[in-house]
User: Fold Aminotransferase from Aquicoccus porphyridii.
Amino acid sequence: MAFLSDTLSRVKPSPTIAVSNLAAELKAQGKDVIGLGAGEPDFDTPDHIKAAGIAAIQAGKTKYTAVDGIPELKQAICAKFKRDNGLDYTPDQVSVGTGGKQILYNALMATLNPGEEVVIPAPYWVSYPDMVLLAGGVPVAVEATLENEFKLTPDQLEAAITPKTKWFIFNSPSNPTGAGYSRAELKGLTDVLMRHPHVWVMTDDMYEHLAYDDFEFCTPAEVEPGLYERTLTCNGVSKAYAMTGWRIGYAAGPRELIGAMRKIQSQSTSNPSSISQWAAVEALNGPHDFIARNNATFKRRRDLVVSMLSEIDGITCPTPEGAFYVYPSIAGLIGKTSAGGVKIDNDEIFAKALLEEKGVAVVFGAAFGLSPCFRVSYATSDEALKEACTRIQDFCAALT
Assistant:
């Protein structure tokens, strides 16, 4: 009898976390490493949100709470969905979890039966397919190519849906590409979904407020009200509010689904941190002016990175609409050899050689389901980004 579960053989550790950990280890060894792998803002949590957490501690709000969120936070979430997305939910339609990842995981665990399929556009966030596998489902990746700006087309979605399809996972703006779907583009997808009433929609809106230029965010149930009863609209405070370590994610959807997710959570983690929940109440209800200031910084950094990487022969770097990532293609570099003698056969080898020879940590594209590319997080200082991009330029210039 094997000690470890067979389930573990179906999944792998998160590559993005692995890259960040490796970069930290190399730095601890005294090596000059610039980490561009972490998907978290370098901004501090705003003072008024921190103050709310401190006040919760001082007021003794440090006990267990309701399994899936305090009433005050659920009310704030309902108000957020109405204010930002025109969606009407009641508190019994809301679930709060320990980060957005737990929300998605709970929903998949609560609904998937063996062999049921989940359509996932690639490039995708690294955890989507593995969470589906852990829940016993079958991830169906559909490649959204560079030629289509990393966006899934209605025809592709139509072709991917089968009688076994349970969920369609949608993420805009996207991790890892930063690509954002316009209302017209999203309407094309929701029109397809309306023709397949057995398919549920899981929309990951974590980067909703990180949008640039004239891009206007929209979410599926907002664009197509007919999908409201089979959509789980997921979000959280991690990215826009610089609260990654506070670990608060949330979702709203049909009561039966929310109840099933509550049951899963009641037997796994129970409630999220009480202190974090009170801080999240302030995040959602309090001032939001800092988001525009942060976005101006992110946009400047995006433009810097896109400009410098686009100067490299063999690299194509689209300009993303949102989030804080770029996803350059290295198709023009495949087959070349680095100054250190490494033949660049794929994007994983490229990323490893870049780290070893130039001390720049990026995440290889195969981790996100679409090669040959790599992901850069520009959620770090302008100085670090300039130096990192200069090193990438030097690395690529030395390829033969």
